[in-house]
Specification:
Blueprint (H helix, E strand, L loop, with lengths): L2 H15 L28 E12 L10 E20 L5 E7 L1 E6 L6 E4 L3 E4 L4 E5 L6 E10 L9
Antiparallel strand pairs: 1-2, 2-7, 2-8, 3-6, 3-8, 4-5, 4-7
Length: 157
């Protein structure tokens, strides 16, 4: 068997097996509301610095966007730090892990999800989750989200 045919066979097995990609919930662990905040730790922010780097008021672009902003934030999460339980049903976002690693506890996944440097995580729809830095190193992420200005209580996460 040639190298190319071995690689093709390996690729076919990988596609057929359907493994989870890094930073994703394994297919056999997905569900609806399979994880909920199990402790007070999950609902209280700790060791998180949240800095808004830029925000654009979309009301200036037309009436259908009145009350919305696009914003970019930098979150720094210390070892043991927690980004508390929150929802993305009304606030879609993309997260880019700049450095470090963090564990996500997502309502649609029965097991924790590990995210590492370089991962991009889309957050939208009927999901709620919380994050904890279970490592001994500070981690940094960039969050880009569509934010309703009236959502002041959930602004930080």
């Amino acid at each position: 068997m040639t190298i190319l045919s071995r690689l093709a066979a390996l690729a076919a097995c990988t596609v057929l097996a359907g493994p989870a990609f890094a930073g994703e919930c394994p297919a056999d662990k997905r569900g609806v509301d399979v994880t909920k905040p199990a402790s007070p730790e999950a609902t209280t922010p700790r060791g998180v610095t949240d800095v808004v780097l830029s925000a654009i008021d979309l009301a200036k672009t037309g009436s259908q966007f009145a009350g919305y902003q696009i914003r970019i934030r930098k979150l720094t999460i210390e070892p043991g730090g927690v980004v508390p339980w929150h929802s993305h049903s009304a606030r879609p976002s993309n997260i880019y892990i700049i450095s470090g690693a963090i564990t996500e506890y997502r309502s649609s996944c029965a097991v924790p999800i590990e995210h590492r440097e370089g991962d991009v995580i889309p957050e939208f729809g009927a999901i709620s989750h919380w994050w904890r830095n279970n490592t001994d190193k500070t981690m940094v992420l960039i969050s880009a989200d569509l934010f309703q200005a009236k959502m002041t209580t959930d602004h930080a996460m």
